[in-house]
Design a protein that fits this description.
By secondary structure, the protein is of the alpha+beta class. The protein has four domains: 188 residues, no CATH class; 82 residues, Immunoglobulin-like (Sandwich); 362 residues, Alpha-Beta Barrel (TIM Barrel); 39 residues, no CATH class. 21% of the residues lie in helices and 28% in strands. The strands form ten sheets. It has an eight-stranded parallel β-sheet. Strands 18, 19, 22, 23, 24 and 25 form a six-stranded antiparallel β-sheet that branches. Helix 6 packs parallel to helix 7, helix 9 runs antiparallel to helix 10 and helix 13 packs parallel to helix 14. It is globular, with a radius of gyration of 26 Å. 46% of the residues are buried.
Length: 786
């Protein structure tokens, strides 16, 4: 790698000349902010095509003023993590006198020696399974050394759940006293790496005028970066106990319907939170009403399971005639006309959601596949995940005209439409597979095993079932065909985004190809696309699919699992707070990650929370063998707490259909019951629905809950956090105990503003000190009346 060290005077000239001619740097008025790019440990490749449209126009690339040599023409440069000592590193891509400024986050990993004391027990083989390796013991084998089983790991500071696998037996690490419930009736050991309680900088929005913004910092940042869209801009600072920074909004921003200010900083102890401020025609957005529906942070997603939602056209009700397919596993009649009807009736608008994620609409097999023994049944493809076409619609759900009308109706109601796409596999009846049987991965492994459901061992090649061959997306012709197909859906139907099934089982090369094609064909023409992946695994694995050239976001199942364990399982509230903080550290303070209330592959949250579904039972078998309901009515309060949590944290809230009122059920297919409306709901469900509506309204109408700073605290059975967007303040508290709890508001949280309790809590003022009283198993959201 070639590096050229530039003198400070030249660096300053580059910086200020860059910002004095911002107008000349703009390439498109639909330019999206480039997210903070997380670099890998030691060496990483930076693919420049992720950040600019035409790599052939690149003149040079500077990283912290060092001129970089190109690797493989102008497509890539090599990033050496150990060469750059700062946690945040500025990269500038220069093209014809203009620069695109990208902030890189250096790897926070380091070497950590893990040691397991067998306490006198003799083992032939010892491994670790946990969050560090996707719970795959074969990935981390320990060696006997210094009277202990040891291995050098490469980890960031944080807490990691794990178990020891000794001679094939899973168990907790008895030499480690730190444990936590696993949310499934068992216990995991916890590995603590480093010190997470350090004094990293804290950024806070402060004030603004028509053309100037001020923010403050705590804990003495060493360096601050301020961006307008993807251009670094200058600022001034006045030092004091709390440093105050201010900068002028670039005049060119007035010509942009929507652009963004972003602020980052670091000191020797780590990186700060981030500030994100949307601008409407160059002015700070004061209300969510000013924002377009395409502003991704405003998404509140509702997952419509099409076949089970609403039957709007009885003529396409054609369940499989096969007598072995029970009604729960057959088509139930929901369709696109049913969704259109509910849009027109105002169901989604009254609920408050603004984005509808539809389960797969593509044509599926008409045969019966799979098998369940008790009661005996096979399954239809009512769910949509057994495709036999890449572009044809499933006639059970409607026609091409139905989908066009659905999208138009949604857009007329200021609602987005996201389609669920199956990119990993096809059904064996798919014409493409029949014509090209070699275009899929191998079913038989070299050792004679079948490559079935080997989710981690053969992550990119494993088949879901013998009748579901996995596409070989490492092949050029297969990857291009599929990328073209997905892009076609976006263009043909004016789709606003996609949810991708089984994203982690698809190579990154495909996601980069698809994203580039969507940018070139759709996004650069002004159509905004939100790309959301589905990946179960560690934060590191999930994050590896998220960047400017890959997906926008993925589901954060790790936070959901922690929330399920806390709100429904009674786990220590600290486990949820720590898990959320870890996610914000990895994905960013203003990430676009999706936070669910449940999904089609899990038992219903409320049935776990009410106790009718047990954590230590097979939720799928339970759904077939008994009528699962809520159980104890406390389940409704627990669901309300989960909903309040999702609606007030950073990220994108996702409601699985029926969770807005508390639909019970076991796992698939019992979690996919037919949707119920209005008079079909009991009193508790109706109350739950009203609380959900109120929570969504708070979320969608409060800029602090969309773009606010975030600060969290917790103890065993309570948690609270604050969010603030300039003078818009929100305090959120949870009492996960069986007794009333009293929270004290910090003086910095009050600042002589008028406070309002929005739910059942009470605010008390005792000699100028404010307290919030929250009933047992409840939450409260405090807002300020401006």
């Amino acid at each position: 790698m070639y590096k050229l060290i530039l003198p400070l005077s030249l660096l300053l000239l580059l910086f200020f000349s860059c910002n004095s001619s911002i107008k000349n740097q703009i390439t498109t008025k639909y330019e999206a902010p480039i997210s903070l790019q997380n670099m890998k440990f030691e060496l990483d490749l930076i693919r420049l095509e992720d950040f600019v449209n035409n790599i052939n126009d690149i003149d040079s690339v500077l990283i912290e003023g060092h001129k970089m040599g190109f690797y493989q023409s102008k497509k890539q440069i090599i990033f050496e993590a150990t060469y750059y000592k700062n946690p945040l590193v500025l990269m500038q891509i220069w093209m014809k006198g203009k620069s695109t400024d990208v902030l890189l986050q250096n790897s926070r990993k380091h070497y950590y020696l893990f040691s397991f004391d067998p306490q006198g027990n003799k083992y032939d083989s010892v491994q670790i399974a946990g969050e560090i390796n996707g719970w795959t013991p074969s990935k981390t084998k320990l060696e006997w050394h210094n009277n202990a089983w040891q291995q050098m790991l490469i980890l960031e500071d944080g807490k990691y759940q794990y178990q020891i696998v000794a001679d094939g037996k899973w168990m907790i690490d008895n030499s480690n006293p730190i444990t936590t419930p696993n949310g499934q009736g068992g216990t995991n050991s916890v590995m603590v790496v480093g010190d997470s309680k350090n004094k990293k900088p804290i950024l806070k929005t402060h004030s603004y005028t028509n053309d100037e913004i001020q923010f403050s910092t705590e804990n003495s940042p060493e360096k601050v970066f301020v961006f307008w869209n993807n251009i670094l801009i200058p600022y001034s600072v006045s030092n004091g106990k709390t440093d105050k920074y201010k900068f002028t909004i670039p005049k060119i921003a007035k010509g942009y319907p929507l652009s963004y200010i972003r602020v980052f900083s670091f000191n020797k102890l780590g990186t700060s939170n981030q500030i994100l401020i949307p601008l409407i025609n160059g002015k700070v957005a004061e209300s969510s009403k000013e924002l377009p529906r395409t502003a991704k942070h405003t998404n509140i997603i509702y997952n419509v399971f099409v076949d089970r939602f609403f039957d709007g056209d009885s003529t396409n009700n054609k369940p499989l005639p096969d007598s072995i397919v029970l009604p729960q596993a057959n088509y139930n009649g929901g369709d696109m006309k049913g969704i259109i009807a509910k849009i027109n009736q105002g169901y989604f608008k009254n609920l408050g959601v603004n984005s509808l994620w539809l389960s797969p609409l593509v044509r599926n097999t008409e045969g019966a596949y799979g098998y369940w023994p008790k009661p005996e049944t096979k399954f239809s493809a009512y769910h949509g995940y057994w495709p036999t076409s890449f572009t044809q619609l499933n006639p059970h759900f409607g026609s091409k005209n139905d989908l066009k009308k659905l999208v138009k109706t949604a857009h007329n109601n200021n609602e987005n439409i996201f389609l669920d796409m199956v990119a990993n596999h096809v059904h064996k009846e798919h014409p493409y597979y029949k014509e090209h049987p070699d275009y899929v991965t191998k079913l038989e492994l070299p050792d004679g095993r079948l490559n079935l459901e080997l989710w981690d061992e053969y992550r990119l090649t494993t088949w879901f079932d013998k009748f579901l061959p996995t596409l070989d997306l490492e092949r050029e012709e297969v990857a291009q065909m599929l990328a073209d197909s997905i892009t076609w859906w976006a263009k043909e139907y004016n789709i606003d985004g996609f949810r991708y099934d089984a994203a982690k089982h698809i190579p990154l090369t495909f996601w980069r190809r698809l994203t580039k094609e969507l940018k070139d064909s759709v996004i650069n023409n002004g159509q905004q696309i939100y790309q959301l992946g589905e990946t179960y695994g560690s934060s590191e694995l999930i994050d590896s699919y998220i960047s400017n050239g890959l997906l926008d976001a993925q589901f954060d199942f790790n936070v959901y699992d922690a929330a399920l364990g806390v709100f429904a399982g009674g786990n220590n509230m600290k486990t949820l707070a720590e898990r959320l903080e870890e996610s914000l550290k990895v994905y960013g303070s203003h990430n676009l990650m999706a936070y669910i209330t449940g999904n089609q592959d899990r038992g219903r949250f409320i049935s776990y929370a009410g106790g009718d579904l047990k954590f230590d039972e097979d939720a799928k078998a339970a759904g077939w063998t008994r009528d699962i309901e809520v159980g104890d009515n406390i389940g409704y309060k627990k669901l309300q707490m989960l909903m309040a949590f999702n609606m007030t944290i950073p990220g994108i809230p996702v409601i699985y259909y029926g969770d807005e009122f508390g639909m019970p059920g076991g796992n698939d297919p019992d979690c996919r019951r037919m949707m119920r409306f209005d008079n079909e709901l009991n009193k508790l469900e109706k109350n739950n629905l009203e609380i959900t509506k109120k929570l969504i309204k708070l979320r969608s109408s409060n800029m602090a809950l969309l773009y606010g700073d975030f600060n969290i605290s917790s103890d065993t059975n309570s948690m609270y956090y604050t969010r603030q967007y300039f003078d818009n303040f929100v305090w959120v508290g949870f009492n996960n105990s069986d007794v009333e709890k009293r929270f004290k508001l910090a003086s910095t949280d009050v600042n002589s503003i008028s406070l309002k309790a929005n739910f059942n809590g009470k605010i008390e003022n005792e000699g100028g000190e404010y307290f919030v009283i929250i009933p047992a198993n409840s939450f409260e959201i405090i807002t300020n009346n401006k």
